[in-house]
Amino acid sequence: MSQSFTFIDVAGNQAQYNVSEKDHHNDFRWSTDHGDHGVALSFEEAQYRARAVLKDSMAANRRSDEATRMSRYSLRRR
Per the confidence metrics, is the pTM higher than 0.85? Predict the structure, then answer.
C-alpha cells in the first residue's frame, strides 16, 4: 500500500509523489510523477527525498522557462 501526496512549489506548480509502506526488505519506496524513484530507511526520509527531487526538478524547469522567455523578449527588443 502507498500514500499519495501533492507537492506545490513557490510558483504554484503541482506535482505528485507516492511513498509506500515498509516492504519485505524493511524499505520505504518513493516515486514521483516526473519519473524519479528511490528507497529510504524511514517513511519520513522517503517523503523528504521525493520532495527534494521534485523541488530541484521544478526549480530547473522554472529557470529554463524564464531563460526562454528572456531570450524571446530580447529578440523582440532588437
Answer: no
